[in-house]
Specification:
Number of helices: 28
Strand content: 15-25%
Strand order of the largest sheet: 9-8-7-10-11-13-12-14-15
Distance between the termini: 87 Å
Helix content: 25-40%
Number of domains: 4
CATH class of the largest domain: Alpha Beta
CATH topology of the largest domain: Rossmann fold
Radius of gyration: 31 Å
CATH superfamily of the largest domain: Vaccinia Virus protein VP39
Structural class: alpha/beta
CATH architecture of the largest domain: 3-Layer(aba) Sandwich
Length: 739
DNA sequence: TAAGCTTCTGACTGAGCTTG
DNA sequence: CAAGCTCAGTCAGAAGCTTA
């Protein structure tokens, strides 16, 4: 018996049996931008169907080429451990996420048996699969030969490659259709067409029984239709233009091998790539990026629920990203021995979506079908409006996990009239969260606007979460995470349901900053958390879930006076006619009667202790919108910008003005109300502490008055007013002369 | 307690700048 | 050279506050 054969036998013994052990397994090298097929003599998987996600061990036999570089070529198989068989010994390697494979040990041929016996536990399908998984499972398995960065890195490569492929195909399809018929294809029909071919491509690469390799596009369409049954596909039409059909099928058929990719990845790409911007706007779709959905699903301890009870509900499901992610998560937790059929009937019972829009619901269904290849439909997608009636409540009673990315907008007047008393708050996310908390599930994961957690708007709901769950995480995300919205968002995850009033709960906040954005998007790496234990009993005020960074500093300065205690803070003047249209009435570059000298813009006009580019603002009361016109502009005050000056932590600049300047609503005026001079106040504001406070507590755009007012004043009673004032004046003088 | 007034905010919005 | 993207800055309408 040669080394390869004995490894084969030993792998069998460890539990890699039947189709979990593939001989001459063919897969695409996802690291290559073009199609490049690799064949590996033996590959061991933890689950069927095989994919890079459940690949455990790769076995190569040395013929000519060998060594770490050779092993690394097979990195995209996804197996963390490789064995390379020589006639008289076997070398064992660890695959790294980046860089070459690492040699671990050399096992003489006669000791192979012994080595497998010794490592029975560590090398079993379950052990490797759990150790690879991104999700923390209750008892984390750590194996020295598993690089936990491998899976995220591969996932990134595969997503990028799939995305590129689908985008290209789509582009060609649209161009060809336009050339032939002169107009753009109908999106839904194109969508269904691509779905048919994707399904066929998977069937083909996975060698599903039947002829899936024919070049006849219409034959393929019919076959897929037949496969999924008349109920699903019959009533809906696919794009009916033979040339375009042919182009899509030819491109897809000739594309790289899908064998080793995990179908739920395809499901993500399917919805992310295929839905165009206009459609998103039309349906108010702000789809959750797969990385966010997976992160949320992976951080929730599904494994703590009994296997039978893992019922997941996604209201406002859209395309059901959370369901696809949950499907993967649930499947990974199932016993390795379950059959396809068993898994499918388990999964379809447990995943429920509520989505009103029929197009989104269809995409959701198709995505789930792709993700649970090769099973047929049966998914529960309820087409109802959650704001009307009690569908949501009825479903909530049966669900143990609720995941949701609600629409962020407010209800319109018409909607409020339509829904009547069903709606208590104008803000849609508030309504969804409030109603979910009426029947608290065992765990929940919500995507919310940042203001919901950082501001006051949701304080009652935050408190309710804190009093229902013991383990709560909030994750603040930078903008541009949701590709189709530049709104800042926050994730709230709650688990370990427990209502007792005397319990201490654990709250953790993570803050993904602008600089962490790329590593976060690639590997879902979270920065260090700020954690706090909160005792419910000792909390009389509503419990807040968000801990700002640098909280030790804010804690230390808790008793200090706030900015509002030493100064009056107001926004600049506002006019009652549109500035864009009536600029010449409102702003003049020269002095005029009824006008006052002031500042109109922030950019390049104001810097610490210095301002330039003054203009004259119309102070006529007939144009006033607010009472800011009546503020004591003549008195000395500090002028600061209301919109941040940079995305860095330096976001505010202060200019001490004793010249009676007026400013518009894009500035804020700060009038001292103690004996602190304007120079001292500007020095405080230009210093790190105030900037840090705003950086820590604000969003990406504004320095809000509410926040400014709450900022603690450091050294309040030891400031040498005279010295600071004179230094500031001296600096200002130098700065003016420098110009 | 409700109406009216003020303040605050933004799944905005449009101009100008980069990028492919 | 247009299409996408970023960033500064509106302005309508909701929240919050005050007054009768």
């Amino acid at each position: 018996m040669n080394a390869l054969e004995s490894i084969h036998n030993e792998l069998n013994r460890l539990g890699y049996v039947d189709n979990l052990l593939q001989e001459d397994y063919v897969f695409d090298d996802a690291a290559a931008s073009e199609t490049r097929e690799l064949t590996i003599p033996l590959a061991a998987f933890a689950q069927w169907p095989p994919s890079y996600r459940n690949a455990c061990i790769g076995v190569l036999s040395a013929n000519g080429q060998s060594g770490p570089r050779h092993i690394s070529m097979y990195q995209t198989l996804g197996a963390p451990m490789f064995l390379e068989a020589f006639p008289d010994h076997v070398d064992r390697y660890r695959i790294e996420a980046t860089g070459e494979a690492v040699f671990l040990e050399s096992i003489p041929a006669r000791d192979i048996r012994q080595a497998f016996k010794l490592n029975k536990k560590k090398w079993s399908p379950e052990a490797i699969f759990r150790a690879k998984a991104i999700a923390k499972v209750s008892e984390p398995v750590q194996l020295d030969f598993v690089d936990i960065g491998l899976l995220p890195a591969l996932k990134g490569m595969i997503h990028a490659k799939l995305d590129r492929l689908l985008k290209d195909i789509l582009h060609e399809a649209v161009v060809s259709y336009k050339n032939i018929l002169g107009s753009k294809p109908e999106e839904t029909a194109l969508f269904r067409l691509v779905f048919r071919f994707l399904a066929a491509k998977i069937f083909n690469d996975r060698k599903h029984p039947g002829d899936w390799s024919t070049s006849e596009a219409n034959v393929i369409i019919d076959s897929v239709q037949k496969f999924y049954g008349p109920v699903e596909a019959g009533t809906q039409s696919v794009l009916d233009e033979p040339e375009t059909q042919k182009i899509v099928w030819d491109r897809l058929r000739g594309a790289f091998n899908f064998q080793n990719l995990s179908v739920e990845d395809l499901a993500f790409i399917y919805e992310n790539t295929l839905i165009r911007k206009e459609t998103r706007q039309q349906f108010g779709i702000h789809s959750t990026p797969s990385i966010i959905a997976e992160l949320m699903v992976d951080r929730l301890p599904f494994e703590l629920l009994p296997q039978e009870g893992r019922y997941v509900l996604e209201p406002c499901a859209g395309h059901g990203v959370f369901l696809v992610a949950s499907l993967r998560r649930l499947r990974e937790l199932l016993p390795v021995s379950w059959t396809d059929r068993q898994r499918h009937s388990y999964l379809k019972e447990r995943l429920t979506a509520i989505e009103l829009d029929t197009f989104a619901a269809e995409v959701c269904r198709l995505s789930l079908m792709l993700a649970d290849y090769p099973n047929k439909d049966g998914w529960q997608i309820i087409s109802e409006d959650i704001f009307r009636g009690d569908t949501l409540e009825r479903r909530l009673k049966r669900s143990r996990v609720v995941l949701c990315n609600p629409p962020f907008e407010d209800f319109t007047m018409a909607e409020r009239n339509r829904y009547g008393n069903n709606v208590q708050n104008v803000h849609k996310p508030y309504e969804v969260l409030r109603r979910v908390l009426e029947y608290p599930p065992d765990m929940l994961g919500f995507v919310l606007p940042k203001s919901a957690i950082m501001g006051e708007r949701y304080s009652d709901l935050q408190d309710r979460i804190a009093r229902n769950y013991k383990n709560i995480e909030t994750i603040a995300l930078p903008d541009r995470i949701f590709a189709f919205s530049d709104h800042e968002t926050m994730i709230v995850l709650a688990s370990e349901r427990d209502k007792s009033t005397r319990t201490a709960i654990s709250t953790k906040t993570f803050w993904v900053r602008e600089n962490d954005r790329l590593p976060f998007l690639e590997t879902a790496q979270l920065p260090e958390a700020i954690g706090k234990k909160v005792n419910r009993a000792s909390h009389t005020v509503p419990i807040s879930l968000w801990h700002p960074p640098l909280f030790e500093i804010w804690e230390y300065l808790k008793a200090n006076p706030r900015l509002k205690d030493i100064a009056e803070i107001h926004r600049g003047i506002e006019w009652n006619i549109p500035l864009t249209k009536s600029r010449d009435i409102l702003i003049s570059s020269d002095p005029k009667p009824g006008f006052k000298k002031g500042l109109a813009n922030v950019r390049e006009k104001i810097e610490p202790y210095y301002a330039l580019g003054f203009v004259y603002l119309n102070m006529d009361e007939q144009y006033k919108r607010t009472n800011a016109h009546l503020l004591p502009w003549d008195r000395p005050k500090v002028i600061v910008n209301r919109f941040i000056v940079s995305r860095s932590p330096w976001r505010i600049v202060a200019y001490p003005d004793s010249d009676g300047l007026v400013c518009r609503e894009n500035f804020v005026g700060i009038w001292p109300k103690t004996n602190m001079t304007i120079e001292v106040i500007s020095a405080l504001i230009n210093a790190p502490l105030v900037n840090a406070a705003l950086y820590a507590m604000e969003g990406k755009r504004l320095n809000r008055n509410v926040t400014l007012k709450q900022i603690p004043v450091p050294f309040s009673d030891t400031i040498d007013t005279e010295r600071v004032s004179s230094l500031v004046k001296q600096y200002a003088k130098l700065r003016f002369e420098f110009e």
